[in-house]
Amino acid sequence: MELVWRKLIPQPRSKFYEVECPECGSTMSIFSHAATIIRCEVCGKIMAEPTGGKAKIYGKIIRTLE
Predict the structure, then answer these.
(1) If you ran DSSP here, which 8-state letter would residue 24 be given?
(2) How far apart are CA 44 and CA 56, in angstroms?
(3) CA–CA distances in Å: residue 62 to residues 6, 35, 41, 48, 65
(4) Domains of the chain and any CATH numbers
(5) Which residues 6+ apart lie within 8 Å of 64 measured at CB?
(6) pTM, 2 dp
(7) Please, which residues have CB within 8 angstroms of residue 19's CB and are 6 or more apart in sequence?
(8) How confident is the model over 1-27, as pLDDT tens digits?
(9) Using CA atoms in the order 50, 55, 59, 64, what is the torsion angle rounded to 10 degrees?
(10) CB atoms within 10 A of CB 14
(11) What is the pLDDT of residues 28-65, one digit of tens each?
């Protein structure tokens, strides 16, 4: 019965990621479908920019936040 409900109720495809800045190594939480340019809070380097769907992430994704 549970399998039937999973098909009827769609699950979100978006996630939050913990991303490490390639420039300074600090970490930030970034939404996978960010609609604005996300800059590092420490050094100001662009960490993610929108593409109309999933954001292009320039840093290293450390983990997915649930």
Answers:
(1) T
(2) 16
(3) 28, 21, 17, 14, 10
(4) 12-65 (2.20.25.100)
(5) 15, 16, 17, 18
(6) 0.77
(7) 27, 28, 29, 30, 47, 48, 57, 59, 60, 61, 62
(8) 566 666 788 888 899 999 999 889 899
(9) 150
(10) 11
(11) 999 999 999 999 999 999 999 999 999 999 989 999 98
Task: Indicate left, alpha or beta for 29 from its phi (over 0: left) and psi (-120 to 50: alpha).
Answer: beta
With residue 4 as reference, give the H or E element that holds it: helix 2-8
Amino acid (1-letter code) at residue 64: T
Tokens of 63: 């983990």
**Mapping DSSP to helix (H, G, I), strand (E, B) and coil, where does residue 7 land?**
helix
- Identity (one letter) of the amino acid at 36? T
Neighbours of 40 (CB within 10 A): 21
